[in-house]
Specification:
- With 268 residues, the chain is of the alpha+beta class.
- The protein folds into 2 domains: 121 residues, N-terminal domain of MutM-like DNA repair proteins (Alpha-Beta Barrel), CATH 3.20.190; 125 residues, Helicase, Ruva Protein, domain 3, CATH 1.10.8.50.
- It contains 6 helices and 10 strands.
- The chain has a 4-stranded antiparallel β-sheet with strand order 1-6-7-5, with no helix packed on it.
- Strand 3 and strand 4 form a beta hairpin.
- Helix 3 packs across helix 6 and helix 5 packs across helix 6.
- The chain is globular and about 60 Å long.
- It binds a DNA duplex (13 and 13 nucleotides) through helix 5.
Length: 268
DNA sequence: ATACCATGAACAG
DNA sequence: TGTTCCTGGTATC
């Protein structure tokens, strides 16, 4: 289940497998009728922006995929790809003499192909993505600093900054002792700049490990080299008690989503 | 077997 | 602000 780190990791992994190769593109489920428009084309490159994934095709058109809450890719590296499992919206298969690869996409919120302008329209409504080299931190900082909306809402708003989801918002606000309902205007620019850095580092770690782990290993009482269980991997998200002060974690609604925080470490 | 919930976001009004 | 669309894991009967 995807926040921005998942999309950037997918772009990277799929680039290794598919970039520069001619692909067969189909829609076993039938709902992605535009598959025919890029069927047989070469996938020039993949691009991640926030939680959006773009396929740059040799036809000049650009594919757009958004996984939403449920979307998933499945990679098959066998010569004979298996029968599509469930409702496969898009299937791409390498159509050359290289390593066999088939990738299935199921359950996405968005899956389309269009002219570059369509991609530009989507990107234009996204705030800076901490995982991108071209991101402007100042823009994100000012987007937050001038808004009276709650920080918990601002971090989920993809036009403020892009790629952050419900887990990273809770974790980053905890690290900086910011209550999810604190208005953006009540944060200092320095605080917001540090928050950006924390989010960038958390997202980078997420790309590296392909999962969300925000705690550092030495904050846990675990044997060296042991895998961190999901419930132990966060400071406040879905925790019963704060990892740092053992106060019971509070769950409140912010921007229509459950936001976890520590009432002691994040008083205001 | 069924209900509910979730790391998302568009749309209606 | 509420409704709708995706899917799958876990909880509850």
């Amino acid at each position: 289940m995807p926040e921005g780190h998942t999309i950037h990791r997918i772009a990277r992994d799929h680039r290794t497998l598919l970039a520069g190769r001619a692909l067969r593109v189909s829609s076993p489920q039938g709902r992605f009728t535009d598959a025919v428009r890029v069927d047989g084309a070469t996938l020039v490159d993949l691009e991640a922006y926030g939680k959006h994934l773009f396929h740059h095709w040799s036809t000049g058109e650009i594919g757009h995929i958004h996984l939403g809450l449920f979307g998933k890719f499945r990679v098959h590296r066998t010569a004979e790809p298996p029968e599509p499992r469930g409702a496969v919206r898009m299937r791409v298969t390498a159509d050359d003499d290289g390593e066999p690869v088939t990738i299935d996409l199921a359950g996405p919120t968005a899956c389309s192909v269009g002219p570059p302008h369509d991609r530009d329209v989507i990107v234009a409504r996204l705030g800076p993505d901490p995982l991108r080299a071209d991101a402007d931190p100042d823009l994100a900082v000012h987007n937050m600093a001038r808004s009276r909306r709650a920080m918990g809402a601002l971090l989920l708003d993809q036009s403020v900054l892009s790629g952050v989801g419900n887990v990273y918002r809770a974790e980053a606000l905890f690290v900086h002792g910011i209550h999810p309902r604190r208005p953006g205007t009540a944060c200092s620019e320095h605080e917001l700049r540090m928050l950006w850095t924390t989010l960038r580092d958390m997202l980078r770690a997420g790309v590296r490990s392909n999962r969300i782990v925000t705690v550092t290993r030495d904050e846990l009482d675990l044997p060296r080299g042991a895998r961190i269980p999901r419930r132990e991997a966060t400071y406040v998200y879905k925790r019963d008690r704060c990892l740092r002060c053992a106060t019971p974690i509070a769950a409140i609604e912010v921007a229509n989503r459950t936001c976890y925080h520590c009432p002691t470490c994040q008083p205001t």
